[in-house]
Amino acid sequence: MITQRKKFLIGNWKMFKKQREAVADFTLLNQLIAQKKQHSPGWEKKEVGIAAPALFLAELASQNASCVNLYAQNAHWEEQGAFTGELSPSMLKSVGVQGSLVAHSERRSMFGETNATAGKRVGALLKAGMTALLCVGETLEERRAGHLQSVLAAQIQQAIQQAALSSAEQWIGSDVSRPHFLVAYEPVWAIGTGQSATAKEAQEAHLFIRQCLAKAFDVQFADMIPILYGGSVKSGNIQEFMTCSDVDGALVGGASLQPTEFAELCAKIE
Ligand code: PGA
Q1: CA distance 201 to 133
Q2: pLDDT tens, per residue, the chain with 270 residues
Q3: 186 carries an active-site annotation
Q4: Which residue pairs from 206-214 have beta carbons closer than 8 angstroms and sit at least 24 positions apart in sequence?
């Protein structure tokens, strides 16, 4: 049986925007989504979020923007301690943050993120009752060398192992229709390049990721986990991806920076 998985549209603001712009854009996005919710059906089946720069999260959370969830772009795996410059899941939760991206490819390529540290972050977020969005994806060299599947398998399996959670329930949380663990497939060559994967390429990779999840747990578990596509998604191409049976939403960089464009994109999927 295929579960009707919820759709997730998460914008990644990366290291963009100053305080005033961040607050204004977040407020506007919430208003736009609220309007769209009034005029079109099906919003109970989708969830919108923004992964904002950590500096602004507390202030954005205090805006009571009920239509848009807030995510961090990274979170440490320890609860607290002498870890200069880091933020723990419970600190993020204390200001109203819902979850965090984990191991975005920019963190893997520039800041020493490994599959092991990615897994520890996922484990800590889930233990804190938060959402963990694990980002995986291959470089162009890896794809050309035929290593797509081995790269994805290692990224998924090692993260699951290192998360060191004792039961499948900890991955899902108390509401099976809204799992705490999400995966984003983001081919590195498609991020910020304007050259997205084709819908066929995305579907193949997503199906393979689901098979990896089934191997790690079981088919039922794999069926519940939303897998988002990321890499040059915009309002003009989101629908192509959403025709794929294993694509459950998108992680959006550039096109999430403009509230009108991002709201438009969110409205385009059913
Ligand atoms: P992009 O970024 O949409 O600008 O390609 C996606 C991401 O980095 O998550």
Answers
A1: 21
A2: 456 899 999 999 999 999 999 999 999 999 999 999 998 888 999 999 999 999 999 999 999 889 999 999 999 999 999 999 999 999 999 999 999 999 999 999 999 999 999 999 999 999 999 999 999 999 999 999 999 999 999 999 999 999 999 888 899 998 999 999 999 999 999 999 999 999 999 999 999 999 999 999 999 999 999 999 999 999 999 999 999 999 999 999 999 999 999 999 999 988
A3: yes
A4: 206/244, 206/246, 206/247, 207/246, 208/148, 208/149, 208/152, 208/153, 209/136, 209/152, 209/156, 209/183, 209/185, 209/246, 210/246, 212/152, 212/153, 212/156, 212/157, 213/156, 213/183
**Catalytic, out of 106, 113, 138, 186:** 186
Pocket of ligand 1 from Cβ distances under 6 Å = 12, 186, 191-192, 230-233, 251-255
Please give the number of the atom of ligand 1 that sits closest to the Cα of 190.
Answer: 5
